[in-house]
Amino acid sequence: MTRIVLILGVMAMAGCGANSAPFTPNANVGLSVGSGGVSTSTSIGASNGTVSVGLGF
């Protein structure tokens, strides 16, 4: 019974990423001036080195 609980615990940790690098947040804000006027851009996201997720505006 103890082995089963131990194995399930290790599998749960591996499944949720508890043994990998934590996600680090990042953000960017941009301002550009051109012939069409001034435009802004913003992006936010997170990365752990292998997986990156983000959203840009």
Helix content: 25-40%
Total helical elements: 1
**Distance, first to last CA:** 52 Å
Could you give the order of strands across the largest sheet?
1-2-3
Written as H for each helix and E for each strand, in order along the chain, the element string is HEEE
Q: Could you describe the largest sheet, including whether it forms a barrel?
A: 3 strands, antiparallel
Structural class: alpha+beta
Please identify the oligomeric state: single chain
* Average pLDDT number: 80
Global morphology: rod-shaped
Low-confidence stretches at least 5 residues in length (pLDDT < 50)? none
The share of residues in extended strands comes to: over 45%
Strands, count: 3
Overall radius of gyration: 20 Å
What does this structure look like?
With 57 residues, this protein is of the alpha+beta class. The chain has a domain of 36 residues. It contains one helix and three strands.
Helices and strands in order:
Layout: H1 2-16, E1 24-34, E2 37-47, E3 52-56
Antiparallel strand pairs: 1-2, 2-3
Keywords: Signal
Protein name: Argininosuccinate lyase
Signal peptide: 1-20
Features of this protein?
57 residues, alpha+beta, 1 helix, 3-stranded antiparallel beta sheet
In short:
The chain has 57 residues and is α+β, with helices and mostly antiparallel strands. The protein is built from one helix and three strands, in the order αβββ. The protein has a domain at 22-57.
